[in-house]
């Protein structure tokens, strides 16, 4: 079909009408476009930023590969949708291109980093937990193993869906909250366990299977996004300002012109999607409004040589519990992921503030952010300069979707909404704050758009993707 797809200064251009416009070239948008292209659909992807990847971007500066957002992902069982994409794109043909992250996680306690956190055996034998807390961890794991339908793709179905993380941990030794769950939820997701629902976190951890499975893309965590984008029609620097649906066609507006298509997928964070499109389906509207995000901030510091930790073998990531420092949440040694990350024997360190630190620092000038975090981090990494000359600040207003019990409650109806010309993709769709959430949402969005564009498939897909409430 040929229709005008772009109007600039009143000039209509006769070019083919794409079946689908995908807004956002993060992992969810690119994976959706890839799945639609596999169905034989014509797809255009419009991205506001100057590069693809969204929260999985890697920048190349000071000779280093610097992941700005997502840093690692678990093995095949933990992130199946990601590994399916990795395999489809041939990125695992050379196993060295997805190397394991060794000695992945430690927790700081009593003046030193306690290794083996996040490993089932490590947690039982130590990792900074008192003997009583370790026993309680066994009890907690046994309780979670009995929870029906603890499914990361459908967290609302779990029997603990109404509990917050703090509720879940209340009967157990306080160490479990203070030295394990709080530092993980706050440090990795920016979540406040007193607000955030227990089910998505517990289901995610159970599915991921422990920090000993962690991997990273040798060539940067944007490897997947770059490989997908190279096979697709993607336009960067194309900020979408409004999406409307009229007479069976979707109009996607931006200062660069209007693109018309038969359907659109909004693969942007939920608050952005709600601002772009006036959603009329009540179930979708309410869920979108309930999907909040926590902001995230990361500082990458390039050093002439790797810092030497206080004692023992260094771990990749060290969680800093609130009781140990109120401003700093996680320190990672990125050069441990692969020697190519910081060539020439250099060090590459990431400092992640606690949620409180993030709120304090999000609006501060870069230099002040770097100095405040570096001053705190020197206690944990002796020799870290107080004012590092090569540091980058990465800010995410919409860092991670925060799954609250209210959002969980509305998710079932959202998932069961009828298919439409405007669909959604993103980690928030399943309230799973990770790349797997984004990749899994893409498969679902492509299936729903396929059903919308093929009316004969609509009824069948409606009953398949219309998940149980
Ligand atoms: C600091 C941090 C650390 C993380 N660590 C990990 C980790 O180690 N492992 C893991 O699995 N996950 C991690 N995550 C989560 C993971 O990065 C995200 O879940 C995933 O990348 C989300 O992908 P997405 O496509 O849903 O959203 P995004 O990546 O946010 O993609 C949305 C895209 O839409 C674009 N966009 C926004 N508005 C518009 C508009 N108006 N017009 C056009 N385009 C627009 C954006 O620029 C962006 O490119 C981390 C996230 C952060 C922030």
TrEMBL record:
FAD binds at residues 47-48, 240. Gene3D superfamilies: FAD/NAD(P)-binding domain, protoporphyrinogen ix oxidase, domain 3, Protoporphyrinogen oxidase, mitochondrial, domain 2. The keyword Oxidoreductase applies. One of its GO terms (molecular function) is oxidoreductase activity. Keywords: Oxidoreductase. Its cofactor is FAD. SUPFAM superfamilies: FAD-linked reductases, C-terminal domain, FAD/NAD(P)-binding domain. The keyword Oxidoreductase applies. Residues 27-449 form the Amine oxidase domain. PANTHER family: PROTOPORPHYRINOGEN OXIDASE. This is Oxygen-dependent protoporphyrinogen oxidase. It comes from Actinomadura hallensis.
């Amino acid at each position: 079909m040929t229709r005008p797809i772009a109007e600039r200064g009143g000039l209509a251009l006769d070019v083919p009408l794409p079946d689908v416009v995908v807004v956002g070239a993060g992992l969810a948008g690119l994976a959706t476009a890839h799945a639609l292209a596999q169905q034989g659909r014509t797809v255009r992807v419009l991205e506001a930023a100057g590069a693809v990847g969204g929260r999985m971007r890697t920048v190349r500066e000071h000779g280093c590969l610097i992941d700005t957002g997502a840093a690692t992902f678990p093995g095949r069982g933990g992130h199946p949708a990601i590994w399916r994409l990795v395999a489809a794109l041939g990125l695992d043909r050379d196993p060295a291109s997805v190397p394991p992250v060794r000695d992945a996680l430690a927790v700081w306690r009593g003046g030193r980093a306690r290794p083996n956190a996040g490993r089932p055996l490590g947690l039982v034998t130590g990792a900074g937990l008192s003997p009583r807390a370790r026993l309680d961890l066994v009890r907690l794991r046994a309780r979670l193993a009995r929870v029906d339908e603890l499914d990361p793709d459908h967290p609302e179905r779990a029997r603990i869906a109404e509990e917050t993380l703090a509720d879940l941990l209340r009967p157990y030794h306080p160490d479990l909250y203070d030295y394990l769950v709080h530092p993980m939820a706050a440090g990795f997701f920016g979540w406040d366990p007193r607000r955030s629902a227990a089910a998505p976190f517990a289901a995610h951890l159970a599915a991921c299977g422990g920090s000993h499975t962690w991997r990273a893309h040798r060539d940067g965590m944007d490897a997947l996004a770059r490989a997908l984008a190279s096979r697709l029609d993607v336009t960067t620097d194309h900020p979408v300002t409004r999406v409307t649906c009229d007479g069976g066609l979707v109009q996607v507006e931006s200062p660069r012109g209007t693109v018309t298509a038969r359907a659109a997928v909004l693969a942007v964070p939920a608050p952005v999607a709600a601002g772009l499109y006036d959603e009329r389906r009540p179930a979708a509207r309410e869920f979108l409004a309930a999907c909040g995000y926590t902001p995230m901030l990361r500082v990458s510091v390039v050093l002439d040589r790797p810092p030497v930790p206080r004692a023992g073998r260094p771990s990749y990531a060290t969680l800093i519990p609130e009781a140990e420092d109120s401003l700093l949440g996680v320190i990672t040694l990125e050069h441990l992921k692969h020697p190519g990350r910081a060539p020439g024997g250099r060090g590459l360190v990431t400092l992640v503030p606690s949620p409180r630190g993030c709120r304090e620092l999000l609006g501060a000038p870069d230099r002040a952010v770097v100095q405040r975090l570096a001053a705190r981090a020197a206690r944990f990494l002796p020799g870290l300069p107080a004012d590092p000359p090569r540091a980058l600040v990465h800010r995410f207003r919409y860092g991670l979707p925060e799954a609250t019990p209210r959002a969980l409650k509305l998710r079932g109806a959202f998932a069961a909404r009828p298919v439409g010309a405007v669909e959604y993709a993103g980690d928030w769709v399943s309230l799973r704050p990770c790349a797997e959430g984004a990749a899994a949402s893409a498969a679902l969005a492509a299936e729903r758009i396929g059903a919308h564009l093929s009316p004969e498939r609509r009824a069948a897909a409606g009953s398949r993707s219309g998940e149980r409430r």
